[in-house]
Design goal:
By secondary structure, the chain is α+β, with helices and mostly antiparallel strands. It is built from 4 helices and 9 strands. Strands 1, 4, 5 and 9 form a 4-stranded antiparallel beta sheet that branches. A 3-stranded antiparallel beta sheet has the order 6-7-8. The two termini are about 45 Å apart.
């Protein structure tokens, strides 16, 4: 990482979590779309060490002249200043760009936008990272991955951190007290209704 400027801001994610950023700068990357390889400049990048994926802002792309069109056939069309570059198919209902970040030492001086040019370092393949990648499986299952699969290595000896998502998802509800009222004798004699809401998280079907 070279010339990255310290920068602290809270980023709110869609699951109502908060990511802390430690710096910002610009990146030069290769974009592969179909058979085309394009070198693009990403500006105002935030470095969030705890983010498991690199995220792009569509609104910022639009402001820079990019066209992003989501089609009903589960493809995303990318264009730049009126020229169609290609389509990206959905993978697991997500659209992922094939980006290869160029180290700052390999960027010609004429392309460097400023001294804020930065590149991303390799992230250690820790227990926490594999835990999140494989769907929040347990520690013992993560440790067993390198025995039953190929290409999986764990580069950190740090123990598995307390995962907030797992704690919330697996937290049991205390048993309800025994009701002292008489049981319903006929259909619709007693109706239980959930009055909680509105829930801020939208379901996959838009509910």
């Amino acid at each position: 990482m070279r010339g990255i400027i310290p920068y602290t801001v809270d980023v709110l994610t869609t699951n109502h979590s908060v990511l802390q950023t430690t710096g910002h700068g610009s990146c030069i990357t290769w974009l592969t779309i179909g058979k085309r390889h394009l070198r693009i400049h990403l500006s105002n990048c935030l470095h969030a060490p705890n983010a498991l994926l690199n995220l792009l802002s569509i609104s910022c792309m639009n402001a820079k002249g990019w066209d992003v069109n989501f089609r009903s056939n589960m493809t995303c069309e990318l264009g730049y200043k009126g020229s169609l570059l290609g389509s990206i198919p959905a993978t697991g209902k997500l659209y992922a760009l094939n980006l290869e970040f160029i180290p700052s030492s390999d960027v010609p001086p004429i392309m460097a936008p400023s001294t804020e040019l930065s590149t991303f370092v390799d992230v250690p393949l820790s227990l926490d990272l594999w835990h999140a990648w494989i769907g929040h499986i347990g520690r013992d299952a993560v440790m067993h991955l390198n025995h039953v699969t190929k290409g999986i290595t764990i580069q950190s000896t740090s123990p598995l951190s307390h995962c907030e998502s797992c704690i919330l998802a697996k937290h049991p509800h205390l048993p309800f007290q025994t009701s002292e009222t008489e049981h319903a004798a006929a259909f619709l004699d007693l109706i239980h209704s959930d009055v909680c809401g509105p829930i801020p998280t939208i379901t996959p079907h838009g509910k």
